[in-house]
Amino acid sequence: TQLLEQSPQFLSIQEGENLTVYCNSSSVFSSLQWYRQEPGEGPVLLVTVVTGGEVKKLKRLTFQFGDARKDSSLHITAAQPGDTGLYLCAGYSGYSTLTFGKGTMLLVSP
Amino acid sequence: KAGVTQTPRYLIKTRGQQVTLSCSPISGHRSVSWYQQTPGQGLQFLFEYFSETQRNKGNFPGRFSGRQFSNSRSEMNVSTLELGDSALYLCASSLNPMGNQPQHFGDGTRLSIL
Predict the structure, then answer these.
(1) Chain A closest CA to B42's CA: distance in Å?
(2) A43: nearest CB among B58, B100, B105
(3) By the 8 A CB rule, do B34 and B23 touch?
(4) From residue A60, how far is each of A43, B46, B86, B103, B109 by CA, in Å?
(5) What is the pLDDT of residues A95-108, one digit of tens each?
(6) Which residues in chain A are contacts of B41 at CB distance < 8 A?
(7) A4: which of A17, A58, A101, B93 fits an S-S bond (Cβ 3.0–4.6 Å)?
(8) Which domain does A89 fall in, by range?
(9) Looking at residue A15, which CATH number applies to its domain?
């Protein structure tokens, strides 16, 4: 069974602070996706990373895929209240289904 | 372009009953996957359908079943409901079988078992 461990589970910060969320596994993934889920809604895809060492930027969000393709991180610069939500990573290993982490719940207060 | 539509949004049932949830994928998407989301276990894969055939099944009891119609719409059924079945049930669609395809999620059906 492939597992994705996300840390921290909960994060409560003030507007303007920076933060990093981690997604780790002992398994190798051919690609990894990050989603954000807001209360009462389904997850929405933010980014897909496929190459070891790859870095992708989406405005104030920076995603990195580890060199060994076993881990990934999401860094948010100058967090805003609109960034509040559950951040989920999901890995695909080639065995046809996505494996989701349990998520990091982020609360950004004004 | 309309997104993934799940009905109903909320459902309250009692133990022992059965329930059917519906999912209409994005137009043109032929793959539909179902997930159960709970605070303790997170998002857990239930099953995936493509071209009316179940391609993959997660580690859930046989009380959980599903099907896909020729128009790609999908339904999932849970029989003999248990208290532990209370969860948010999410449906996701993609153009092709899951793989590393982006999953487009609906807003879910919140099922509460009394």
Answers:
(1) 4
(2) B105
(3) yes
(4) 19, 34, 36, 23, 32
(5) 667 889 999 999 99
(6) 102
(7) A101
(8) 5-109
(9) 2.60.40.10
